[in-house]
Specification:
It is a single chain. The chain is an alpha+beta fold and 807 residues long. A hairpin with a 2-residue loop joins strand 30 and strand 31 (596-610).
């Protein structure tokens, strides 16, 4: 959610800077995730000042240039060479000082430097309006008529004020803060200042007879509906102040009427809609649930079929808009609209949430309605909106203000005991301070006794329903940071702490990978259904969200692979193609059972390696990443964790062209391989990617803090090499197993150092060059022992593997 700093200041007086306000809001639970300065023009005219031309003489070396002396409020006059034909002594002008940057209406920005022009020193620039981005004219410099002193910032003369865009990560429970007014209520509670809302003193019903009738058939879904007809309006461009407000929160300006609805929505937190009254068929507005199959064409041009449970704003012939979610195209405001009908309502959140989910529509209106708006706001909001319509579009307010509210929503009564406040806070606050905080949050005290309070909570606070919620409200305004920890703080627990420090292990592996050049990434666990389906997982095994924000983000991921590939694609498209990435993340799934599902999730560690392992220099050429580069990096993780695995098999995984699986008994501990081209293409990646995945939860269970070690042997080891010609389908693992089975006592190491294929070996043949390390920990080996051992190995290779020994 985006909030304008200046708009907040128009609601409530506070002294905090944008940075200080951000920290303050975060402390109350409205976490500020971003703060951005918004300049009224590019550069904000920084470094530009008002100057006065004290001298103006022809340039000695150029006919069209003038040498001027300009007072810019400094100790000495600035020498400036100017080519404008209208520059003259005595003028007040705009001067760009040395070091400032100009952002012209056309062309690229440029910095002002001290220079010499045709041999004369120039210490700045006297500006035309197009050179500072305030117009298109370049006929001459701007000449000002102002009493402002020399050196005054140009932004002050043009009344250009910067704003700040505050991005708040609004949690679902804080529907009350989904507007500038809502945020200002928290500021009021913090600094005890009054909020100044837009006045409605100029609102008055007119004499013109209203032609629209209202009928609310479903009062459960629409407890309150306010409507008002205004005639003879004029659709036009919005004024500067309204466009600036909408621009500050990244909302596009459409026209004066539509912009008013967006203003009311974001400023007061009350969604609303304006209909073209002449397009309301039968001159009747009906709030009902249309029959299944009825259709409405929404503002995005899509014709949507209603389900029978959707609430809609209808006229005498059919639906005009999906209530609380999306307006209709046919009844919306157009350039030729003359008469309008304003709709401001309170809708039941459950109805809006269901409709929004079923149709996959998320709008600013549905965002607020499905979380819960204030049922007491519509009468005020429609009056503010009507005044704005008259101010910006003219028109005559008709004589009827509809307010259909048959069953008023009462305040919620909550009893809270002082002893529970003290217990949950961990600190005893003064009773008067507690009551002051509550009243500042619009929580009225209905009744007070010696040990408890009976409180009246307004319905717009949908998250405050019980005693603990009241204590949380007190705490967040009083300040978490103001609760001291007692010297004898202790805690009880029912079970033993786990032996493995999971956070410590994660940090250790993160540091290991970072030291190896890997960067950590964190991706959303919510993904597109097509990503899960790409791996062939049946729809019934996927974990779907009940209330997804968008159709593209509606299931939980079943693999980390595609999340990382998306990150790689994003980077590669921006010419950052050499990547080593890792992520600790959770994957999800479900297993169908009789009449139900068994849901599961687990944490895994994923590694991605792509591009070049070393960049090109004058000493070496670029080398592409290979499979064994990732295997080596991944091996460090397994070694560091001391994770036991008995064997390594070829990976049978639909994600890989080829790869390896690390097994502990029948359990796959880890897997790594080269990602199939089809998955790379699916993710938009155009280079090879190697991926490894470790079952992190299983690894933590098998982790051992014990370090096994052996004494360094006192007697030397001996190396012997063999060249084995084998069938293509015999791998190194088979050689390893055969050697270890044949010689268990002296064989301490085996390694392949060369693989060769060629026509001279014969079809379907390959040659392994293998080294064998022999060692006896109790004595020095002699030639006879070594030769006998190698003969046994050769015999085993020939007999068990069909090997030919190349001598």
């Amino acid at each position: 959610m985006l909030i304008s700093y200046n708009a907040l200041k128009s609601l409530i007086d506070f002294e905090e800077t944008p940075e200080e306000l951000s920290a303050l809001l975060t402390s109350t639970g409205l976490e500020v995730e971003g703060l951005e300065e918004i300049l009224p023009v590019p550069g904000g005219l920084k470094g530009l000042v008002i100057g006065e031309v004290k001298e103006c003489q022809p340039h000695p070396n150029a006919d069209r240039l003038k040498c001027t002396k300009v007072d810019i409020g400094a100790k000495e006059l600035a020498s400036i060479v100017c080519g404008a034909p209208n520059v003259a002594q005595g003028q007040k002008v705009i001067v760009a000082t040395v070091g400032s940057t100009l952002y012209p209406s056309q062309g690229e920005p440029f910095q002002i430097k001290k220079s010499k022009i045709r041999g004369e020193v120039s210490e700045g620039m006297i500006c035309a309006e197009d050179e500072i981005g305030l117009g298109e004219s370049h006929a001459g410099i701007l000449v000002l008529d102002t009493p402002l002193s020399n050196g005054t910032p140009a932004a002050e003369y043009f009344d250009l004020k910067s704003d700040y865009r505050i991005e708040i990560g609004l949690t679902p429970n804080r529907a009350d803060a989904a507007s500038h007014f809502g945020v200002s209520r928290d500021i009021r509670a913090l600094n005890q200042k009054e909020i100044t809302l837009p006045g409605t003193e100029h609102f008055a019903l007119g004499q013109t007879q209203s032609t629209i009738a209202l009928e609310v058939q479903n009062t459960e879904a629409c407890p309150r509906f306010c409507g008002l007809e205004i005639r003879n309006v004029r659709v036009a461009e919005s004024p500067k102040w309204l466009k600036q407000f909408l621009g500050s929160i990244e909302v596009n300006s459409i026209n004066n009427l539509v912009d008013i609805t967006n203003y009311i929505n974001h400023y007061l937190g009350q969604p609303m809609h304006i209909f073209d009254a002449d397009k309301i068929r039968g001159q009747k507005v009906i709030v009902r649930c249309p029959d299944k199959g009825e259709k409405v064409k929404t503002l995005d041009g899509i014709t949507r079929t209603l389900t029978g449970t959707d609430l809609a704003i209808c006229d005498a012939e059919g639906p005009m808009a999906i209530a609380g979610v999306f307006g209709g195209e046919e009844s919306g405001v157009q350039a030729n609209t003359q008469n309008v009908f304003l709709e401001v309502a309170y809708f039941d959140p459950a109805f809006i949430r269901k409709t929004s989910t079923v149709h996959g529509i998320k709008t600013d209106a549905s965002f607020r309605y499905e979380r819960g708006t204030d049922p007491n706001m519509p009468p005020f909001a429609i009056r503010v909106a009507a005044q704005l319509v008259q101010e910006l579009a003219g028109g005559e307010i008709c004589n009827t203000l509809f307010d259909n509210y048959p069953n008023p929503i009462e305040n919620r009564l909550v009893e809270v005991k002082y002893k529970n406040i003290d217990r949950l806070l961990g600190k005893v606050l003064a009773r008067e301070e507690i009551k002051t905080i509550l009243v500042s949050l619009d929580i009225a005290i209905e009744k007070e006794e010696q040990d408890k309070l009976l409180l009246s909570v307004p319905p717009y606070r949908v998250d405050v329903t019980r005693e603990a919620d009241i204590v949380e409200e007190i705490l967040r305004i009083y300040g978490f940071q103001n609760i001291e920890l007692s010297e004898d703080l202790a805690s009880d627990y029912l079970s033993d702490f786990p032996k493995t420090d999971t956070d410590g292990q994660r940090l250790k592996i993160s540091e290991l990978l970072a030291a190896s050049g890997f960067f950590e990434i964190q991706n959303l666990s919510i993904v597109k259904p097509s990503q899960n389906a790409a791996l062939g997982d049946a729809e019934e095994t996927q974990v779907k969200l009940m209330n997804p924000l968008t159709e593209d983000l509606s299931v939980m991921r079943n693999s980390l692979l595609f999340s990382g590939l998306q990150t790689i694609a994003y980077n590669v498209n921006r010419r950052n193609s050499d990547l080593k990435l890792y992520e600790f993340g959770r994957v999800y799934g479900r297993t169908p059972q009789e009449n139900s599902y068994k849901y599961w999730d687990k944490q895994v560690l994923g590694l991605w390696y792509t591009g070049a392992k070393q960049s090109e220099t004058w000493q070496q050429k670029t080398q592409k990443v290979e499979f064994f580069d990732l295997k080596n990096a991944f091996g460090k993780v397994l070694t560091s964790m001391r994770i036991p695995y008995q064997q390594i098999d070829e990976a049978d995984d639909k994600r890989f062209d080829y790869g390896l699986a690390f097994l502990n008994g029948d359990k796959t501990v880890a897997i790594l391989g080269k990602v199939k081209p089809e998955w790379l293409k699916f993710s938009g990646v155009k280079q090879d990617v190697f991926y490894a995945e470790l079952d992190w939860e299983y690894a933590l269970k098998k982790y051992s803090s014990e370090v096994n070690y052996l004494e360094i042997p006192k007697f030397p080891a001996v190396r012997r090499d063999l060249s084995l010609v084998l069938a293509d389908d015999v791998n190194f693992k088979a050689i390893q197993e055969c050697a270890q089975k044949t010689e268990k006592k002296l064989l301490s190491g085996i390694n392949v150092f060369d693989v060769y294929k060629g026509d001279n070996l014969g079809k379907g043949k390959k040659s392994y060059s293998v080294s064998f390390t022999l060692q006896d920990p109790s004595k020095t080996l002699n030639d006879k022992q070594i030769d006998k051992t190698m003969e046994r190995l050769i015999a085993a290779f020939e007999g068990d593997l069909g090997a030919e020994i190349r001598r």
